[in-house]
Amino acid sequence: MKKIDHTRHMGIFDASTWPVTLIGAGGIGALTAITLGKMGVPALILFDGDRVSPENTATQFYSPFDVERYKLAALHEHMAVFAPDTVLQINNFRVDGSTPWSLMASPIVISALDSIEARKGVWEAIKDKPWMWYLEARMGAEVFQLHAVNGDDRDWYDQMLASQDDSLIPDEPCTAKATIYTACIAAGQIGKTMRQIVTGENPPRLLIHDIVKGVITQIGG
After folding, report:
1. Rounded to two decimals, what is the model's pTM?
2. Using CA of residue 98, residue 103, residue 105, residue 109, what is the dihedral sign?
């Protein structure tokens, strides 16, 4: 099997000892998996129970040939081509409060889900577990948000998430929910945050990237 040559970034970061749990393999998640694999992450524990639908093929890292397949089955094949060095653990189901930590355990957990309810389910499963960093990614059509939670300082996120509800978020028309360029930028921002973590930097608690306005806002850190 051919190996990835990490020569061009090995002087910037070394992710080879940092396995990651990635929850969600949709717009953000699939491209994040490819990005982390190319960065040299040695193992990914993946969770997603959805299948590829036709509308996913324009905004996610899936082709028309993947339609009706489980997203993780398709992603497994794509990872074998684009990031063959990364070991994958596939879990074709969603994470909730009953999901055992033994299936999820890694120093970095990334959530790339599309509802507050789903994020609360993940948080219930991991909030008192011994991870080092939790990254929670959100995407509108042209806006990306990333919460970075240090395992030693997690109460603020617990309080913030508890105050949120899906009914309080304005719904966009189904024809204006996602774009591939925002998903690509989101994966890049997560990769950059991964780089900060593995090199000992503290990423901001909240990063908001408004793609249309070209504005990046960073809070805390």
Report:
1. 0.95
2. negative
